[in-house]
Amino acid sequence: MTKKIPLRSEIPDEYTWDLQSIFLDDDEWEVQFEFIQNQLSYITEFQGRLGNNAIFLANWFNTIESIFTEIGKIKTYAELSYVVDMTNQEASSRNTRAQNLLSQANQLNAFSKPELLTIDIDILRHWIKSVPRLAHLGHYVDELERQKPHVCTPDVELVLSSLQEIYNSMVTTQTVMVNNDLKFPSAVGSNSETIPVTYGMMTTLATHPDREMRRTAWESHADQHLTFKNTFAGFLTTMVKHQQLIAKTRGHGSVLEMKCHTDNIPLEVLPNLIDTFKKHLPIWHRYWRVKRKALGYDVLHEYDINASLNKHDPHVPFQKAADWIYEGLKPLGDEYVSIAKRGMEEEGWVDVYPNQGKDGGAFSAGSHGTHPFFMMNSQDKMFSLGTIAHELGHSMNSYYTYHAQPYVYADYSLFSVEVPSNFNQVLVRDYLLKNLSDVNLQIAVIEEAMLYFHRYLFLMPTLARFELTVYEHMAHGKGLNTDDFINLMADLLAEGYGGEVHIDRQRIGITWAEFLGHLSMSYYVYTYTVGLAAAHSLAKHVLANKPHAVENYLKFIKCGTSMYPLDALKMAGVDMTTSTAIDDAFEVLDNCIDQLESLSERQG
Questions:
Q1: Radius of gyration of the chain (CA)
Q2: What is the set of domains in the chain, with CATH numbers?
């Protein structure tokens, strides 16, 4: 028997997102696209004149905000129409045109930052105090001054903007390749059942109770990436060279220095995080032993790591998952829960189920001027519930930021972006473990947590070690080839497995190629570890009814980029310049292993 993935047209409307909240249809999108394209010329009318006076500067900010807000809506509609069916050529064309429109606007506006820096900072500060339309720009001007040593001339900024467009096209090509051109052989179970292998199905297959199904799925996924290993290595090498060129052009000593400077993060945060991770590797080694014993295996393979201890995973349909999530989020107050419920049940924020041609995985999207959206590939399992809570956390962050901040601050730092998503999950897990007495359900909740711990406290810091090593080698002129990437990844994972997991070096060594979308953003993967650790710390305060914990957390998800991420996290109640929160997260992991071991014994 073969499990069939439905066509997009077969998914009921109630489980798809409502893009009509942005544009009624493709025709209305086309009208707005043409209108904004014709408006772009207004940007250049301000070139060479930003320093004329405060009123002129305010007019430029208003023009930029208006144009880029509309481009955000155009891009969101096009992107979200495309990712649900990447075989739709018309949707693909609109998505490309929207990306090009944004790139064109960025290029036309490339003059602005260098020109703003020709104005005396004290004059700028006087202007923002004297003109109400500029009153919110205090942090913006401070950040402008901080970035001044790394802002280039207008001509160079234009070249860098154009270069970014080319880079984005390469990343898009890689995304299209993995979603459309990689043809994974179906997984085959011990009873000859077959299940299609796609990115969206990998969590289901990785947790499948049939070991043969897991093995064939894992090998299919890895082997297809190995088939194109040289192409993926070419993508990675180009990504690194691009980032190194940008860093050098902007006068940074390294790509890591550039990325840390962007968010005002101390350079030692990443190396300290890696040291903390390595210190706690024995906890992971213990987990592999516990998992092997609970499964009753003599040897644990990588395809066993996420295997469920439940022979029949509990069925958790979307509405039941949503109801449990609302209950779990009640500590944040009635308003928070009401917004979340309205978004999921009335405003069409979420696209729930997989279909043919749909992008794999899950993500949250949106822009200033739209409400948030998030994409799922739900399998109606407990891990799907966790993903709903996770992506809803991202979307709630967006919702509060969009409503609290003007356009200039209506974004958030990648350093702290994973905090709200993991925070939601911690609250929901706490509720479920306190209120579900069934052993199978409790095991499912712990295993959902372990999926994220494995990803955020094992895979992501391991990828961060991989990334740091690759950048350091290439910065010193040491060329790395495909086999070097595979061997490096295999060595790092082998250290993490500590002899407790059987090593298939080629297949585990290609893991980096499965995360190229993450690596394309350079020094992003470690922020997943930051997000999980900070989330657990802040959720602990809320669940303990610590004074002002809820108030401070809500301030955090409203602040956008009006504060530096470390300052915003400190305001919320956690200091990520020390290892304390990460140490505490590993303690939570250790406790989860204890719980899983105890529950599996009760089950057995």
A1: 24
A2: 8-173 (1.20.140.70)
- Evaluate whether 8 touches 355 at the Cβ level (below 8 Å): yes
Burial of 90 (0-12, 13-18, 19+ CB in 10 A): exposed
Q: How far apart are CA 190 and CA 394, in angstroms?
A: 39
| Distance from C-alpha of 307 to C-alpha of 302, rounded to nearest angstrom | 10
Bridge-based pairing state of the strands 194-195 and 373-375: unpaired
Q: What is the DSSP letter of 374?
A: E
Please check the confidence at residue 1 and state whether its pLDDT lies above 70: no
Give the H/E segment covering residue 562.
Answer: none
Q: Distance between CA 157 and CA 112 in Å, rounded? A: 9
Handedness of CA 548, 552, 554, 558 (dihedral sign): positive
The model's pLDDT over 395-404, given as tens digits with 9 standing for 90+, comes to 999 999 999 9
pLDDT at 166: 86
Over range 62-77, report the average pLDDT. 97
> In this structure, what token pair is assigned to residue 138?
């205090």
The predicted model gives 544-553 an average pLDDT of: 98
- In 3D space, the residue among 315, 380, 377 whose CA is nearest the CA of residue 350 turns out to be 377
Residues in a beta bridge with 370: 368
Please report the pLDDT score of residue 161 as a whole number: 87
Q: Rounded to an integer, what distance in angstroms lies between the CA atom of residue 210 and that of residue 249?
A: 53
Say what the pLDDT of residue 604 is. 60
pLDDT given at position 335: 98
Bridge partners (DSSP) of residue 364 are 374
Query: How many helices (H) and strands (E) are present in the chain, helices listed first?
Result: 27, 5
pLDDT band at 591 (very low <50, low <70, confident <90, very high): very high
The C-alpha angle 297, 298, 299, rounded to 5 degrees, equals 90
pLDDT tier at 162, thresholds 50, 70, 90: confident
Q: Following DSSP, what letter does each residue of 326-351 receive, concatenated?
A: HHHTGGG-HHHHHHHHHHHHTS--EE
Question: Global pTM?
Answer: 0.93
DSSP, res 504: -
pLDDT, averaged across the chain = 94
Helix %, strand %, coil % of the chain (to 5): 70, 0, 30
The owner of tokens 């999207």 is 365
Conformational region of residue 188, where left means phi above 0, alpha means psi within -120 to 50, and beta covers everything else? beta
Average the pLDDT over 477-491 and give the result. 95
pLDDT at position 266 = 96
Span 4-39, pLDDT tens digits:
889 999 999 999 999 999 999 999 999 999 999 999
User: What's the token pair of residue 289?
Assistant: 């032993």
How far is 133 from 140, CA to CA, in rounded Å? 13
Secondary structure (H, E, C), 399-460: HHHHHHCCHHHCCCCCCCCCHHHHHHHHHHHHHHHHHCCCHHHHHHHHHHHHHHHHHHHHHH
